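SEQUENCE AND FOLD
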Amino acid sequence: MTKHTNKKGKRPKGKSAKKENVESILQQAQDALNIVQLEEAATLFKQALTLKPNDTTIMDSLADVQIQMGCTHEAMLLLQESISREPHSNGVKWLYLAQLLCGNDALSAYQMGLQILEGQYQQVHQCVLYLSAYVLLPIILQQATNDLLQAIAGGYCSIAELFMTDLW
């Protein structure tokens, strides 16, 4: 078993050790996701969540894995908890929740998610406009813009599908 040490070769103590441990666990979870080991990723995200039980980013990541594994009830509970703690932090979690709901509940969740994503897009777009006047755009901003636009487009497509099925 490997012991974590800092740059000076000493083991960190207290909050620093906990933060390093959580970051290490989250990296392992992401590595497991990258090779599609969903059960391993879920176990690691759960482990990280026990260390940081109020972290909505970890809740959202675990919910995403739960959805991929078909554990929709667990995913819904995680998403609802995350939304109750930080309703405006991440529009995508609302889109995930909407996929698990039906009818008008799903529509409301899609609309809330889109509202948040469109606000985030406006903020990123303003940064892009400002920075483009002075420097070449960093690739990360271009990717963030594209990711937001894809999520927004996906949300609107899902609403259209909802109207063709549940809300017909």
